[in-house]
Amino acid sequence: MNTAPTKHWNFRLRLALVLALAAFFAQTARAQDLKVTLLGTGNPRPSMERFGPSILVEAGQEKLLFDCGRGALQRLYQIKIEQVDGLFLTHLHSDHIVGIPDLWLTSWVMGRTVPLRVWGPAGTQRMMSHLRQAYSFDIHMRRDVDQNLPPQGVEIQAKDIRQGVVYRNGDLKVTAFEVDHGLVKPAFGYRIDYAGHSVVLSGDTRYSENLIRFAQGTDVLIHEVLDPEAYRNLANSYTPAQRAQVLAHHTTPEEAGKVFTKVAPKLAVYSHIVPPDVPDLIPHTRKTYAGPLEVGEDLMSIELGQQIAVHHGQR
Ligand SMILES: [Zn+2]
User: Fold this and answer.
1) Cα-to-chain-centroid distance, residue 12
2) How many whole angstroms from its chain centre is CA 223?
3) How far is the CA of 157 from the centre of ligand 1 (A)?
4) Residue 235 buriedness (CB in 10 A; 0-12 / 13-18 / 19+)
5) What is the pTM of this model?
6) Dmax (CA) of the chain
């Protein structure tokens, strides 16, 4: 009896099984991963390289956006994401929120059928209800008169939050903690924990002991920075007193280095970089921190799986 074809098929069957299992485990691994994408790493001044502050965190299937600066929706669209599951605001400075009407209304036009959920400091609810008022003509037209878009898709569920756990879904937990943004109160940073991985986002802050406390044990710490030397050389319309105020609201590279050293994350990353181009950012940080460090750029993504992988540029 010729057994060759049977052997052949047995081999094929085993190979198919191995491949299927490999695909299954790869899928499972991905479902456990936490992925962070810097959509905008800039500051209030327009820049084509650094859009307004905004960070996407993907935990399994869930997509959460942290801040919504200028161009956030365009960056999302660049990485082929049309909808997010929620928006968390660090504070209500315009450079962190100016992209909200675009995210809210355009993603409705692009097909959102459920309300946009927004969490943020005191004043968030009021701001969102005023945005509804500001865009009432467009909402009425698209919902009731012209395109008959789904009414639920333009609704907003906004919540003013305090320090503590603000969102939980299965293995995913989002914790807000107070940071120190000078006179701008309240201002929050966020810690996102998911399936054994974690990332901490500083929001806008000067050196903050509370941030160091909440960031303990985190895998990745993404921190803002303002380099005083480079900032002083920047031509702008501010008076010396106004410039001093800006400096007092943010963290210098040397201070950020101290924060990184105290937290000792597996990876430290700069985002919200002021001014957008700081030639000596790394040398200034190295005075106080010797660990892993990345200077963030728009569309840089960080995958937290079995290892931490950094990818540059568009997906
Ligand atoms: Zn700010």
Assistant:
1) 45
2) 11
3) 23
4) exposed
5) 0.89
6) 95
Q: In this predicted structure, what is the pLDDT of residue 54?
A: 98
11 phi and psi angles, rounded to 5 deg: -60, -45
Number of H helices and E strands in the chain, helices first, is 12, 15
The Å distance, Cα 93 to ligand 1 centre, comes to 5
For 44-54, the pLDDT digits (tens) are 888 999 999 99
| Dist. CA 202 → ligand 1 center (Å) | 11
Bridging pattern class, strands 156-160 and 267-274: unpaired
CA separation for the pair 106, 22 (Å, rounded): 39
Domain ranges in the chain are 34-309
Please state the separation of Cα 89 from the chain's center in Å.
10
User: What tokens does 25 get?
Assistant: 């485990």
> Tokens for 204?
């806008």
pLDDT at 19 over 90: no
In this structure, are strands 34-40 and 54-59 parallel, antiparallel, or unpaired? antiparallel
Count of all residues that appear for the chain in the document:
315
pLDDT in tens, 20-40: 555 544 444 466 799 999 999
Homologous superfamily (CATH) for 34-309 = Ribonuclease Z/Hydroxyacylglutathione hydrolase-like (3.60.15.10)
